[in-house]
Write a structure and sequence with these properties.
With 53 residues, the chain is of the alpha+beta class. The protein has one domain. The chain contains two helices and two strands. It has a two-stranded parallel sheet. Strand 1 (6-10), helix 1 (18-33) and strand 2 (37-41) form a beta-alpha-beta unit. The chain is globular, with a radius of gyration of 11 Å. The protein starts with 5 loop residues before the first strand and ends with a helix.
Length: 53
């Protein structure tokens, strides 16, 4: 649990305002670039495009 291989996120920006969602997304970048896989489900296409690869 302390060193996951995959992290799942369900609608991470859904209850956040735009600025807070961007700050949260910036926190995800080092996780996404590490060896942890991230599976994210979201309806916010802008967030998905900005914070996924």
């Amino acid at each position: 649990m302390l060193e996951p291989q995959i992290s799942r996120l369900g609608e991470p920006p859904s209850a956040l305002d735009h600025d807070t969602a961007n700050r949260f997304g910036k926190l995800l970048i080092p996780i996404i670039k590490s060896e942890v896989g991230v599976i994210m489900i979201t309806h916010d296409l802008g967030f998905a495009e900005k914070f996924s690869d």
